[in-house]
Amino acid sequence: MEIVPLISTHENTSAAPFSGACTSLIHMPLDIFIEICKHLPPFDLHTLTHVCRQFHYWLNSTTSYITRDIWNYSRLNLDEHMKLDPPEGMDEISFIKLSLIEKKCQICKNDEEIPKIYWVFRVRLCTKCFRNRVTM
To answer: How many domains does the chain have?
Structure first.
């Protein structure tokens, strides 16, 4: 396989090693990358978004139907309870992150209690943050 640099190969002594983006990307046709990603579980897709800028771009585009399909296939292949579509107006990526990946309260980041997902607000909150932020 051929490795293609993503960023300049000029030395930069002021930057820490591997800062910014990864320095190389396995060069493969995009359709092969897409097919591989369709068979990965959502957590692995999420991890790939942090590998390098190119993967982040390919897997986080909210306007790309290809990106939407990758996350959709991944979600549908994961588990029976994930067969429901995202709420109206919510994209696949946000739906998967809220329901599967993010496990802490989105306000205080507390993970001592299991925060509840409030679908009407599209947020995961612990009881304390819910009481402090939502008026009835």
So the answer is: 2
Looking at the structure, do residues 28 and 92 belong to the same domain, yes or no?
yes
Domain limits for position 125: 103-136
Burial class (CB in 10 A: 0-12, 13-18, 19+), 78: middle
Q: What is the C-alpha to C-alpha distance for residues 22 and 86, in angstroms, rounded to an integer?
A: 32
Measure the CA–CA gap between 11 and 65, rounded to whole angstroms: 38
Structure tokens that stand for 12 in this block: 């930069």
**Percent of the chain whose pLDDT exceeds 90:** 24
The answer on 108 and 85 residing in a single domain is: no
- Residue 110 tokens read as 């507390």
Per residue in 22-50, pLDDT tens? Answer: 444 567 788 888 889 989 999 999 999 98
Cα 36 to Cα 31: distance, rounded to the nearest angstrom: 9
β-partners of residue 5 are 24
